[in-house]
Every structure is written in C-alpha cells, then in structure tokens.
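TA notes. Do not distribute before section.
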Amino acid sequence: MSDQDDTDQMNGADSLVQTLLDSGLDTCFTNPGTSEMHFVAALDHVPGMRSILVLQEGVATGAADGYYRMAGKPACTLLHLGPGLANGLSNLHNAKKAGSGVVNIVGEHAVTHIELDAPLTSDIEGIARPVSHWVHTSMSAADVGADAARAVQAANVAPGQVATLMLPSDTAWNGGGAVAPALEPAERPAFEAAALEEAVAALSGPDSLLLLGGAALSAEMLELAGRIAAKTGCKLLSEWANARQERGAGRVVVNRVPYPIDQALETLAPFKRIVLLGARAPIGFFAYPNKPAILTAEGTQITNLCTTAQDIAGALEALCGNVGAADTPPAHVAEAATPDKPSGPLEPGGIAQALARTIPEDAIIIDEAITTGRAFFPATAGAPKHTWVNNCGGSIGYGMPVAIGAAVACPDRKVMALIGDGSAMYTVQALWTMAREGLDITIVIFANRVYKILRGELTNVGVSNAGPKAMDMLSLDQPTLEFAQMAKSMGVEATQVTDCEALELAIETGLAHKGPYLIEAVM
C-alpha cells in the first residue's frame, strides 16, 4: 500500500491527534460524549497523547490553564457540544485573563444533522467567542489537521491564548484526513521603546513605583526589578492576581496591590509616578458607591512601558541598563525565615505561620483562599523557594482544577492547593481526578462555612441593614459541608483539623503522602 493510500484511510480524528502531537501538544483533559467518540478511539490508534478524564468540564478547562502556567505550553480539552463547552466557560474566562494557552476541541453534530435542530444543537461558536481569542469550525476531514495546527499556533501567541476548534462528528469519522506540520507562533512584539526614556525619568525615589505583572514575576526578571529598585529608590509592587510568581528565600520580594479597595487606595496614594511593566493601571475589582474605580491618586503620571504580550524580558533588561543598575545588588531580597510554631484556634495569622513553616522547596502554591489567604503573602516571603499561582479572572472554582494541571505538568514538584470552602464546591469533582491519576497534591480547605468575602462586600457596597434572609444567602451551613467525607468518597485520603498545631501536623503528613491528601481546616 502506498503512502497516499495510507493517507486516504486516515480519518479526521486520527489526523487531529497526530497533528496535535507533532505541534508539541501531548496532554488532553477530557469529558467526551457521542460526538467525540472517534477522537476517543484515535487516542488508541495514535500513541503519545496523555488523556485525563474529568467529571465536569470546568475541571478540564481549569486543568488546562494550570498546565500551561507551569509547563509553558498548551494542553487541550475535549468537550461535548455547546453545553459541555458552556460548563467549562468559567475557567476558560480565568485562563484568558491569566494569559494561558489552551486548545479546546469541541465536538459538534455532523454537518447534515445540524439543520435538524436536535436537542443538543446550539451556537457553539457563539458560546466560545467571549472566552476565546481564536474560534473555528472544521468543515471536512481534509481540513482537520491544518485547522488543528492553526489552533495550536494561536494558543501559543504570547502570553498565551485560548483557541477553540469545533469538530463536527462526520469530519472526525470520514476518511481523507491529513497530518499537518506544526506552525511557528508569532514572536512577542517589542516593548514600547518610545516610553523607555520616560520610564527611566519616572523611577526616582520612594514616590515612584514599578508595577509588575505577567512574565516580569519570574525569578530572573524579579532580580532585575530588585536592581532597579536598589539604584533608583523606587518601590515594587505586583498586580493583585498573578498567573505565576516566583517567591521565597533568596528571591526579590514583591507584594501585591491589595484587593480591598480602601487598602488599595491607601497603598497607592503615595505614588506620583508609576511605570507599568506587564501590568495594567490599577482599577477596582468592582464599582462601589462613593469610591473611585481608578485606584491611583489624581494626577499620577503613568507610563506603560510593556504589556504582558510584549517583550517583558527585553523591557526589564533595557530599563535596568538605562538606569545604571546592571551591576547593582538587588534590593528587597528575602532572607530565610521560619516563624514561631502557631497555636490555638484556626485564624488567618496562625494559618499563615503554619504554611510558612511547612512549604517545601520548589513547591507550587495554588491560592484560592480568598479572604483567609490575605495574610499568607507577608508570612511566607522567607519560606523555601516556591511558585505562587493566583486566580486572574476572579471566577471561583479555579483552584483544584488548576492544581491538577500544575501537578500533571510538574510531577516532580509538590503542589499545595489552598481553597475556600465556597470555591471548593464549584469543582469538587476535581478530587476524583486527583485520586484516579495519583497526583501529588495537598489540598487545604478553609471551612469557615460562609461566603465570607461577600459578607464584607455587603458593607462595601453600602448595605447597612442586612437581615436574616440576606445573611442566609451568604451562609454555607444547614446542612454543614463535610469535605473530609467527600474526599474519602472519591478516593482521596483526608483529615479534619480545628487548631493551628493540628493543621501544621496535617500539612506535614499530606506532603509526605504520595498522592492527593485533603485537610479540612474548620474555622
């Protein structure tokens, strides 16, 4: 049989899987249905793709987000028609805001079946567009391979993009598929060279700020920022939520602009000049009555030197050189520090101490602790070197899925997922996948049994007369959620703690355990 005959026998699904592999994409988080069965079969025909089953599509999309943040390359999701994609939209929103590259493969009805308006028929492209940078539907088996290569190319556009490819079932099962060669992504655009002179002039003294985000928070880039701060006297801050930040002893400490609006306004008030490097100008998370949406002081000079999609490394190197800091030792380098052993009931300060004492070298910390977690950053600055991952889109239920992706991408590193109880219930199915895959994740659920952040927001938006009905909408008891029991039912070892001493011991036990381990911290 000739090579051409082999090609003629290849269906669209086989060409899709092989093209994805040839384009460097070898991990797929799946929740398939009938229209995706030929893709499922192709995973057997074409070796090399790791396929990880999840029980809800938001887990698949969140896991792909976490994978990209740690691996630096996309994974794909396999989702079932419009409703399956819709279930994953929340974490695709978060992935898009984080600048994560994701390739979604979404099954569609056969082209001839769409016109019949079957029950699962929907406008899949319309559902995909708000959370995708690139959207396309393959129209024949011959197109699938080339479309897949373009999807991966789009996902790799800096800093990372969401690409969604619809695959009608007949394009998957029909013959005539062809493997397409990998396509090179576009290079990062240059930083704003015209703004460099203005940025150099702006960074002078403690009333100036270098605000960092994106790739500027790698260990190497933070060292350059520390040199600039030492030379110019400027202050360093990062955005409130960052896709990935390197932290710990020996690295330059960069604190975040606070989330609570009053604290953010107070933090930013002293700065007359701000240079943005991979960050946006600070704005409020929400609008509040009688409070400004723009968080910088009136009259603040803001220089946008480099966006997160541009050449951040080139911008920092140029800025460091132009302020004469290339040979200056960096400022704000964290010293190794181990706080005192905490004791007593669980509260944010004591929990932060326990974390600082237990974070292992090279750990990955997934932070969705929301209110409880606000105390964690200062206390953990001197912990062993680690990576800190935040929710950049604000849609809760991201933490445990992102932990899955991080653990798959970095199987040799410990992953710690710090999750609020309200957030955990959005994607609690993630525990099952952790157990099935034997992923090395220690999960701490902070069970205060309320939507505590919303109780604070009730006051922030000016509500002063909330009664029992309003408060009941912000509570998570009646009945009480039992996370240790839920975890055990899905094959995850678990324990419940109620004080700081027990929490520290449980974290140490979880980190020593091979595989997932859940700690329910009842507050």
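Switch to the second chain here.
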Amino acid sequence: MDTTLSPPDAAETLGGIPASDILRLLGDLVTVTAPAPDGDLGIRSVGVLDGSLDECPDLLLVIGAAPADWAGLITRSAEGGVRVVVLGPVSGDDRALIGAAGLQAGVCVLERRADVPWLTLSDLIRERIRVADTEQIRGSGVALEDLAGVAESLAEMLGGHVIIEDAKFRVLSYSSSTGQVDRGRDIAILGRRIPDDWLRHLESLGVIDTLLGTDEVVTVEDGPFEARRRLLCSIRAERFLLGVLWVAEGETPLPGDIRERMITAARTAAPFLLRHQEAGFQRRAAQNRQTRLLLDQGTIAQSTAEEYGLSPADRYTVFGLRASPDALLTNLDRNRTVESVALYCQSYRWRAATTTIGHTVYCVLAHDAETSAGRLSDLAAAVGEHVRRALLGRGVQVALSRTVRALQDIPTARGQVDEVLETCSPAKRLTVTSFDDALATIALSRVGQFMTANAIDHPKLERLRAEDQATGSEYTATLTAYLSAFGNVVAAARQLNVHVTTLRYRLKRIQAISGLDFDDPAERLLCELLLR
C-alpha cells in the first residue's frame, strides 16, 4: 500500500478547503461580497471574533461587531492571516465599501443570509473541512484506521523518527527505524507509553503544561538515555487535545523548516486520532456507568477496579469540581472537563477514575497510605486550575473528601464532597476546600436543617423580634453581634459602631424585654444557632 502523503513543499496546502470553494460548498447560505484571491490556500480553522485578533483563524465569523467597524476588522484580520471573513447581512449602502476593503486586503468576504443561524453556518463549515481532510487522506492511500501507516507517512514528511501518542501519553503508533535513535524511544515503544524518566524530564522543563494547553511546537535538545534532539506538539481538534506527536532526530539532521512541518503533520494526524477516539467512546460510557455505581453504592467488580487502576491501593480520596458561580455546564463542557481531569491525572501518574453526575465532575483517586493531605490538596488545586483555563476563565470550585480505606467507603467520601460544594459559597476564581476545612460550616448547616425541620424556635427571641418590628429598634442585631463577639462588649460595640455604654444599655433592655439569661451557656448557644 502506498502511504505517501503530500510532499513537504506542499505542507501549507495539505488539508482544508480552498477559500474559493467555500461558496460552492455552502450553497445559498452565503453570498460573495469580495471574491477569494487567486492561489488562495486551504481553510483549516474556524474562529469567532472575541474582541481580540491576536490569534487569527483561517476563517473568521464576525459576530456582534457593529457594521461601522467591519471594514477596519477586515483589514486587521488580513494582517493576522485570516483568509475568509463572514459577516452578518450587509446593507446595500455598505456593500461597495465592504467589498472594496476585502479586495484591497486580499480577503474573501462572505455575507450570511439573514435567516441562517450562526451556529448552523459554523457547524457546516467545520464539517466541510473535516470531510475534505478525510478525503485527502483517503486519496493518499492511507486508511483512516491505519495509524501505523500514518506514522510512516509522517516520518517521511518530517525527515525523522515518529511516535504518535494519545492524550494520556500512551503510544498508538510509531515509524519503523532502520538506524538506532536512542534507548528512550525503544523503551517507549516496548512499554507502549512514555518512560517515567522522560515524563519527569518534560515536567522539569514545563513541556507537559505547554502540550496540554497550547499548539506550540516544543524542542527538547537532550534527555534521558543520551537522547537525541526531539520536537513535540499537540494534536488537536479545535481546542480539544487528541494526542501528542513526537519526532526524533536520527543520523540525518531534521529539516530546517521542521517546526512548520510539525504543525502540518499534527493537523494531518487529527482525523486518524478522532477515529481512534470514537472507537473508545463506548468503552468510556461503560466506565462512566461503573464509576457512578461506585460513587453511589460503593460496588465495583474486582477485575473492573484493576482495569481502571483503582486496585490494589491502600487509600482512596474523592474530589469534585463545579464551575462557578452558576455551577452550570453544557454537555460538551462536562465531557471535556471529565476528559481534562482524567488526562491531567494520567499525565502525572495518578491512578484515578473520573465521571460526571449532574453538573459535578467527580474523581476517585487511588493512592498509598503515605500520600500526604498536602499532596492531595496540591493535585486538586492543579487540576482545578487546569480545568479553569479550559473553561475560558470561569471560576472553579473544588471539594476534597477525607481519605477512606476501602472502595466500599467511596459513597461516604462522595457525600463529603457534596456537602462541601453545597455549603461553601462559590467564587469567580479557583477555590479548593477540604471536608475538614469546611466542617464547622457543614455542622452548622446540619444543625440549622434539623432545627428548621423540627420547627424549633425560642419565645424569648420572638419577643425581641416583635419589639424590633413594632418600634424600629435594633435589639436582634445587637444580640447577634454580642454573641458573635463571645460576650466581648468592646468588640461588639466596634462592630455595631456604637459606644460601649450604648451597647450595655441595649443589653439591659434586651434582657428586660425578652427575659434572656446571658449567664446561661445553653441559652446563649441556642440563641446563636437560631440567629444564624
């Protein structure tokens, strides 16, 4: 089978669809305001104007900008590398101006039909790009299921030795090698995943965070096992990480334009990894069901626990994540968050099973008895920050359970996570709260629920509230401040912004009106609980 892809000098045009074909593919959903220039290159990426043109896609959907700004946006986007701009309906008076701006900038300008939703249009364009990539790969003679053939083809394109890994650094395919590269590559291939020494080396260089969060091509000049130079980059579909592409320098130096070739190679590999990932969706659905059953009932087959890496283990800890402040995630956000958490844990060698129930993402960690609470908290914070960035800066609330000894105790740990999330206020940033840190708040919440459910009240407090309502006094607020200050009249007066003498007078009136006995600790505690 011929597995040759397009030659390196055609790297820039590999994949995507020419801008001149956009109109034909979209039919009557759009009209042309400024045609595509001759010799236009392939359209691979679609983006939405978000107020910044720092990172420009090939095709830009201008949503929300005022028509008066369109001409300037066309010029600036062309300078950033945009090849096609899609606008909302253009009025007759503005069409000539917009068309001239597009021709001068060398950008194809399309006008969306008024009754066509932006989402429908963007989904259709992305689907056309995906189909074009797939057809081009099929035309090269490489089957979409043939990851081995892809690795061989990319090695030919890149001029080095290739390994393709999934997003959890597991080796999916690799190119054959007639010459020796280094022992690290051999260990990765034989073990079907990146060696621990290499993982620690990449961690020390900050490469893993770069691969997880960006499309940047990273160069590693040396490494464990007397390694030769390597280049790595992520393989993505839109913002979603699919895997990692490695190329190692052999006896022949890598080409001078290797970074540009790596970007093209990563785009070429994406459809193959998508197909591979789709095959794993069914397995993922089964794992979700098993993990939810473990969280709900503490039951899981021993063989399944071993398969998920949860057994054997000395201890287990559960942490949960919610987006804040509204704690609402779309299905897509939830699925990506689950994958992001699982990917992060696997990348840093934590054994974990992750799933989502409602709007909460749960992660069950299996670890040694010696694993400290501080290390668990650090992991939860790092995962929360990783998810926060993936959710475009939305706040993330992370709750951490106590450590339990057995899998059947997981529902107890899950309940602790839920209590933390329900009682602690979310924030517009990252918060990490353990069950023990939130225990006082949780205990008060439980007492409050009990008192409400049993209609517990105190007639003396009711008399005080009635006096406030009848005369406009502030005796209830005064009593609250006094009890919160542990009976310290100076601190309470400062909190109320009144003189100490005034506070003492109010306390005497409170006792006279209500009959409260401030010397009785039980009555003081009851009042404080009811006032809270």
